[in-house]
Amino acid sequence: MRILIVEDHALLREAFGQLLYQLARDVQLLQAADAKSAHALLEREAQRLDLILLDLQLPDAAPFAVLESCRRNHPQLPVVVVSARDSRVDVQRAFALGAQGYVCKSAEGIELLGAIRAVLRGEIASPKSSAPPSAAPIDGPLTQRQSDVLQMLARGDGNKDIAALLGMAENTLKAHLLRIYRALGVNTRTAAVRKAMDMGLVRDV
Fold this sequence. Notes:
By secondary structure, the chain is α/β, with parallel strands linked by helices. It folds into two domains: 119 residues, Response regulator (Rossmann fold); 56 residues, Orthogonal Bundle (Arc Repressor Mutant, subunit A). It is built from nine helices and five strands. It has a five-stranded parallel sheet with strand order 2-1-3-4-5, with helices on both faces. Strand 3, helix 3 and strand 4 form a beta-alpha-beta unit. The protein is globular and about 50 Å long. The relative contact order is 0.11.
C-alpha cells in the first residue's frame, strides 16, 4: 500500500506517518510539503498510489486547488482531506470537488484510520461533527459500467471480484463506487444497494 501525504508541517507529516503504519505492514509513504512537490510526485507515482492524504492549507496554492487538480488529472485516486478547517461549507465543498473522505485535525487518530479504511473499501467518510455529503445527485445518470457495478454490489460481490469480472483495476472500481454513492446520495455500499432497489435500478438477486 502506497500513500502520499501532502502536508506543509513536518511534525504533522511525521505524526501521520506513524499513524498510517498501523494500516498494514507494507505501507509505503511518500511526502510532499507543498503543492508543487505534490504535483511532481503525482506525475511520477500516481499509477502506483493507493490514496492521497491532503491538507487544504498549503503555502503555494489556494485551499482547494490541489484537490481540484487531483480529481481532474487522477480521478481514480482516492483523496482523504485532513484539515484544520471544519466548517460545514468547507466539508461539503471538498466532497463536491471529489474528496472521498474528510477528517478534521482535531479528531483522534482512530477516526483518521477509520476514515482511510472506509475510503480504501470504496466508501465515503465524512467527519462526525458534520452533516454527510449532500444527497443531491452530483454526477448525473449512472453509466452502463456503473450500473453493472451496482448490480454486482447488489448480489454481494466484493471489490476484488467485481474488478476482476469487469477487467478493471481496484482503484478504478473505487472511483466508480464513489460516483455511484454520490449519485445516490449515500455513503456505503449497503445504503447504495438499498436505495438502488427502492429506485428500481437493480434487478432482483
